[in-house]
Amino acid sequence: MKAAFIRSKGPVDNLEVGEFPNPEPGNDEVVIRVVISAVNPIDVYIRSGMALMNVPMPFIPGCDFSGVIESVGNQVQGWSAGDRVWGSNQGLLGRQGTLAEKVVCHPQFIYPIPDGVTFESAAAGGLVGITAAIGLFQKAQLMSGESIFVSGGGGAIGSTVIQMARAVGAHVAATSSSDEKVRECTGLGARFVQKYTDPGWMDAIRHAVPAGFDVLWETSRSPNFDALVSLAADNARLVLMAGRDARPEFPVGPFYVKGCALFGFAMFKSPPHQQREAAHLVNDLMAHGKLLPKIAAHFSLHEAANAHSLQESMTLNPSPNSPTGKILVHISDTL
Amino acid sequence: MKAAFIRSKGPVDNLEVGEFPNPEPGNDEVVIRVVISAVNPIDVYIRSGMALMNVPMPFIPGCDFSGVIESVGNQVQGWSAGDRVWGSNQGLLGRQGTLAEKVVCHPQFIYPIPDGVTFESAAAGGLVGITAAIGLFQKAQLMSGESIFVSGGGGAIGSTVIQMARAVGAHVAATSSSDEKVRECTGLGARFVQKYTDPGWMDAIRHAVPAGFDVLWETSRSPNFDALVSLAADNARLVLMAGRDARPEFPVGPFYVKGCALFGFAMFKSPPHQQREAAHLVNDLMAHGKLLPKIAAHFSLHEAANAHSLQESMTLNPSPNSPTGKILVHISDTL
User: Fold this and answer.
1) Cis check: omega of the bond before A25, within 30 degrees of 0
2) What is the torsional sign of CA A326, A168, A194, A199?
């Protein structure tokens, strides 16, 4: 099979495309023909060495995928060849990734693609959908009728958080980087959206929701705790899942006097049963048209280095006019 | 009745002692003859104006007390004159405080003093006991068999947290400021204790508990997030309840990759039913000899300014040899 891989961690040029032996499933594994692999910031961190994570060499990056089951191990129950599936959490913790024509998975990390949902949406929605569901419901326990502020609502995570919060009946405010992305956030159901490059954005949000927010989700790699805590209601829950090198100042007094809680998490370290619970919610929302992942760009497997290069620039050097959303790598056709 | 009071917020000299009318209970209130009033950092914050809290003028400071019920309003059930009680949460949110011969309370904020528990312990254990119980069990959900690190185990809060964590079967490590306080922490049941003035304290703690801690409690007004997160196990819960003006740097990456949660709270803003649940645990532990509040010093009502002065220096300018524990003001005898 063909796959994109690295022989050692380093810059984007380390990514090559070459031949690997076709994988066989172990007794408790399935082999999936990958239709689409989606790129995530974590792929850049692992490939570049920014994330201190041991990987086998040569290493095939890639967490997310959609595809079709090709073969199943003799102890696997509930899955058959031909099933349309998606998954996340490959290319991590010693496992090879999804920038390949085939991937071997443990069934605990695969989910059915609902009827009417495309391979594109399933691949693009995976990691961000599970992340949003874990953060909103398992961590922050957002409830219907509560208010949520999404810092960076125009990105892949932010746009998913907005849609998911709206789907459960929460009131959403957001910031984004450009007029176009502000319009997108509004289109997804955010009621108050400000461009965070406008100096008055915080006053405008505070004026719109003077009681403060019950949940505040920071997508930025440079979290602004002063803004989040300032906009928080008493007993607010803050969510944090990015910013590996950030060391912002933390306003201790306002945080504890308001009784805030801050939840940090890396989706791929959540236990499989929590990821599965989140994935089922993602499926339910996608099947009902309430969650449409945002897609930034499309590449072929031979363009894997270009896909990583774009993700790297979006993640490490974002500008107001950067594209946002998921980067998809189309690997095989859907027949 | 006699009371210590201020006519305006400001330095310790603003505290006077004078005569006030004897209070009468409203229909749903009780009047308590105060035996002991305990001083807390919050009293300094309110008296000095550091806490932006509206208070009636003239204002009698003081949150904690132990005493004897003198009279009850005609709608109060379950309490009678002569009952030995303790409470916290006075002198806040518009209520007059406890540096007085009598205090009017709503019954939701008073608790019985168990047989065999002294007025001293009941007054000294109040705010710190409720704080420790809320933080450990309602916020961090410490479980038997888990490990906890207490930064600043020698103080009033820290020594209470150590005892309470031990009482539920947790493994405790702590830091403190002097050899004497290290011995005290060990005596309370902390297994590994280091002087935080020793440069190698963190390595020593990490070596003793290499898996990291499930719960980490910061008592310092200058929280050290790098140390806390570095010593945290995956999915650790951090507790924060002090440091009004602190703005330490926050290590975003290590925090979220470990899946940490940070809980801040101000005990007096917790709902009454949560304070009551915590107070019942405090009572249970005190009645069984498992919680003995640490007492730093004793004063009379006429020495109220000295009591505030000592609390101010312990809170705002602590040194390794500062006394630690609760400051008690003895107001009436126990007959």
Assistant:
1) no
2) negative
User: Where are the CATH 3.40.50.720 domain residues in chain B?
Assistant: 128-267
Phi, psi of B295 (to 5 degrees): -115, 130
Backbone angles phi, psi at B12, to 5 degrees: -60, -30
The residue behind tokens 């009827």 is A115
Give the nearest partner residue to A250 out of B241, B247, B265, using CB atoms. B247
How do residues B95-109 score in pLDDT, each as one tens digit? 999 999 999 999 999
Considering CB atoms only, which of A250, A253, A264 is closest to B256?
A264
Write the burial class of residue A138 (CB in 10 Å: 0-12 exposed, 13-18 middle, 19+ buried): middle
Determine the Cα–Cα distance for residues B172 and B186; give it in Å rounded to an integer: 9
State the Cα–Cα distance between residues B130 and B293, nearest whole angstrom. Answer: 12
Which residues are bridge partners to B102 per DSSP?
Answer: B33
Query: Do B79 and B30 touch, CB atoms closer than 8 A?
Result: yes
pLDDT at res. A319: 83
| Chosen CATH of A131-267 out of 3.40.50.620, 3.30.1360.70, 3.30.470.20, 3.40.50.720 | 3.40.50.720
Contacts of B244 in chain A (CB under 8 A): 252-253, 257
Report yes or no: B125 and B87 within 8 Å, Cβ to Cβ. no
Quote the pLDDT of residue A30: 97
Residue with tokens 């405090």: B282
The fourth-level CATH superfamily of domain A2-113+294-330 is Medium-chain alcohol dehydrogenases, catalytic domain (3.90.180.10)
* Closest of A173, A302, A287 to residue A233, by C-alpha: A173
Q: Please write the tens of the pLDDT for every residue from B231-247.
A: 999 999 999 999 989 99
| Location of each CATH 3.90.180.10 domain in chain B | 2-113+294-330
Q: How many CB atoms lie within 10 A of CB A59?
A: 22
Q: CA of B252 to nearest chain A CA: how many angstroms apart?
A: 6
Q: Which residues of chain A does B259 touch, with a Cβ-Cβ cutoff of 8 Å?
A: 264-266, 269-270
How far apart CA A260 and CA A293 sit, in angstroms, is 30
CATH top-level class of B128-267: alpha beta
pLDDT in tens, B75-86: 999 999 999 999
